[in-house]
Every structure is written in C-alpha cells, then in structure tokens.
Design goal:
about 280 residues; alpha+beta; TATA-Binding Protein; OB fold (Dihydrolipoamide Acetyltransferase, E2P); 2 domains; 6-stranded antiparallel sheet; 5-stranded mixed beta barrel; 8 helices; 12 strands
C-alpha cells in the first residue's frame, strides 16, 4: 500500500514537472494581438492537428472560409499558403488574412494572421473567437482528406450587393491599384454592387448601352481627404437586357442608382466596367 501511494505521488510530481510544450497549446492560448488601431492591428492564432498534410489543411480551409463568407484571393495548397479577405460590407473596408500551413512530427500546424488596415478597429476577443472557430473545423486523417476534397473548389457566395457611391468605389479601387493591382481581379471578380451617383455620359459600346458615372478627380475637389488616391478610376455600367428604354431617357447630370456585377478593369486606362446593370428606385 505504501509503495502504491508513493508511486502515485511520484507520478503526480512528474506531471507537474513536465514542460508546458508537452501539451499542445489550444488556439485560444496561441492567440496574439499586435500593433494598434492607428498603425494597423494584427491578430495571430494557430492550431495543430495530427496527420494533416499542408495541402489537406489548405483545401479544407478553402471550404471553411467560403462558407463563412470570406473572399478567397489566392490559394497554393502544395505550398501550404492561402490569402483571404474579410469581405467589405457597406462602409467597412476589407482586410487581408494570411494563412500558412506546415508539418512537423506527424502533425500539421496552421497559422492565421489578420492584418487590419490603419484606422480599423475590432475587439481582440471577437477576433480570437472568429479565428479559432475557423481553425477548430480542421480535421486530420481520413476525415481531413474527405473535407479537403469537398473544399478544394469551394467558391464564396455573396449575400447581397454592396451599396456605395460610384465616387467611393472609384476611390477604393484606385487605392487598391496603388497598393498592389495583382489582387484586384480576385478581390472583385463576380461581386455585385449597387452604385449611386451622377451620369457623366451615355454611349453605345459594342452590343451594350454604356452609362458612365461622373467621377470627381482629386484636383477638382475643394477639400482633399487624407490617404486619397492620386487619381481616380472611371466607372461605367454595361446595361443589362430590358433597360434600353431607361438608358435612352438618361442625360448627363441625372442622379442614378445601378446594380451590376464587376466585369473588367483596364489598369492602363484607369477604368472599370460593371455588366448586366439594372436601375434601382
């Protein structure tokens, strides 16, 4: 009896003496907040899952983040790399989230780093809850491979068109182009917007009636806001079927609101087109 008691006590002491690395940290324990709202907040979270290769991790995450409404910008499963964005909603700007997957000692480790832009704010607890909820869905082994196969071609479905002025959209995409134009095609592809503004001109463009919004350039403004793009892109709508009567009654200076799908941009000419545009009341 004495021997058994001593053994139990020794076992308990040994458990207390084990280094913390013997127990895998939870996602919540790995969570780190860096920076500040003035220069830009950073939130980092990690998780490790046994028997999860990097490509399996990334393809699983594609399905997870698409279902949760994130924009998928770039995916490289074999390299264990992915770039997503918290989608823009109304006046809330999008921000990037970088994901990296690695393997060691039979386990896959995934790190997410959310990079808020200067002037963007959110509570650390909210960021932790969301990031760890995403990472908690990762699986290893056979279940992980099945989830990866299902998520490999997942596409984010937009809930509703984003409503904003054509002037604000022009500022946004012009600033995106100044930072890095490579992500524009993926960031905006297939997205619907409801744009409001003033008609600049109406013209025939191939088989379409095209309505151009009046975009005020920075040099035309009495007050230029901080961080404004140096020059602003032009914005036009290729009108959809059944809108010819509407288009033929427009004239420069008329206030309009059009809903359309992002179609194409010409970086060399600083212009962007929407297609299948329809008028809104």
């Amino acid at each position: 009896m004495m021997t058994r008691t001593l053994f139990a006590a020794a076992t308990a002491l040994l458990a207390l003496a084990l280094p913390s690395t013997a127990r895998a940290a939870t996602c919540e324990e790995t969570f780190v907040k860096k920076g500040n709202g003035i220069t830009g907040l950073r939130f980092i979270a990690m998780t490790s899952v046994p028997d999860m290769p990097v490509d399996v991790a990334i393809n699983q995450l594609r399905g997870i983040v698409a279902r949760r409404g994130y924009d998928i910008i770039a995916v490289e499963p074999a390299a264990g790399a992915m770039l997503i964005e918290q989608s823009q909603t109304g006046n809330s700007r999008a921000f990037p989230i970088e994901i990296n997957a690695t393997t060691a000692n039979g386990a896959g480790t995934v790190q997410m780093e959310a990079k808020l832009r200067a002037g963007q704010f959110t509570k650390a607890e909210l960021a932790k809850a969301e990031m760890c909820a995403v990472l908690a869905e990762l699986k290893g082994g056979k279940a992980g491979k099945l989830a990866a196969a299902a998520g490999a071609r997942a596409v984010t479905q937009q809930a509703a068109p984003i409503a904003m002025s054509a002037q604000a959209f022009s500022q946004q995409i012009s600033k995106d182009a100044e930072r890095n134009s490579l992500a524009i095609a993926q960031r905006y592809a297939g997205k619907k917007y409801t744009l409001s503004g003033t008609v600049d001109y109406i013209t025939r463009d191939g088989q379409y009636n095209r309505v151009a919004f009046k975009i005020q350039q920075p040099y035309e403004m009495a007050i230029r806001l901080p961080n404004m793009a140096k020059s602003l892109w032009n914005v036009s709508c290729l009108m959809g079927a059944g809108t010819s009567v509407f288009a033929m009654q427009l004239k420069p200076g008329k206030q309009i609101k059009l809903t359309g799908t992002f179609h194409e941009f010409a970086e060399d000419r600083d212009v962007v087109w929407f297609k299948d545009c329809i008028p809104e009341k």
